[in-house]
Amino acid sequence: MAGDEINEESLEFSKACAESVLSKLEARSDKFYLPANIYGGDLGAALSLVRSTALFPEFAGQSRLLLTAILAAPKDTAARGVIDGVGAQAYAIAFASAILNEVPAAEKISDALRHQISARQAPRTSADLDLLHGLLGLCLAGFRLADAMARTPDSSLIGCAESLVEFVVLMDDRSLLAAMGCGASHGLSGVALAFFTFDRVGIHPAAAEQALRCLNLERHFWLQLEPTFDPKSDAERSWCRGTAGLTAAQIAATRTNIGISNIFSHPLEPLSPPQSPELLSLCCGLLGHCELMSRAANFIGDTSLNARSKREFELATKVFMSGKFCEISTIGLFRGLSGFLWTATTIHQGGACPSILLLE
């Protein structure tokens, strides 16, 4: 499914981003920056570069070599979650496998992930439910990797995921909301994103029900605070801590076989663009807004959303090229130049490619 092509100026800018990311990664190939980190490290930048070869095939060979080198680079694997450490490597390998037609370093990472999960015995705490940094994200990455390797998930991975679902089942609504808060990074939307994955792989019969519960709790919180889903601060509009995270989880919910119309009228209902024109990043700004609109266009069959995403992406590139201050100052994925590459590719493919904001 082809999307609305971005204008020539934005396309040239995106290509310049690819060249800049490629150049910087090659320049520090003797010592990569945060090689096990997807958020702001070189792992995320390389993953975005490989993904963008759908748009810029001339960079395919170099980008594949760089991603392979980063995955093989020495690194600290103590971090948990899906954004750093073993979980990030597992997720990156699984994501890239469909592009590379291979699963590089999978055995080593699979073993390390299994060891880390086995070491985290019950009882569970709310910190374990943090998608980016907790056990929840580690489990999600494990299921993604097992799927890429065409393997049945390890029993320790299944048991860990089941224990997280059961932990949420036992929490009352007030305690769950107070412990987790909102957003995809560390809040209820992140729990829902992971639990929808657990449901798809058949891990726990209550996974989908609890995912919906998390969505309902967060949606109710925002409606009490802002009845029109029009938060006053950009933090409250973001993917990481705000209503865009709820949007991501609601888009993911459309892939399930459960009834969702009683919770929201439209997956994009809570999505509000950032108010600050200089807030551009995938995590907190306009690029994330574009990414979610394009992905929703594919899920619900509304092509007008991809056209809107294209216009907003062109605005984002214009703001950046104007030289105005913005938070993008690195080549990283979530808050750097690689975010432009990621979103340009999504728009080019009509939202048909998996999104990092849905942890697909």
From TrEMBL:
Q: Which Gene3D superfamilies match?
A: 1.50.10.20
Q: Which InterPro entries match?
A: LANC-like
GO terms of biological process kind: peptide modification
This chain belongs to the protein called: Lanthionine synthetase C family protein
- The organism encoding this protein is Paracoccus aestuariivivens
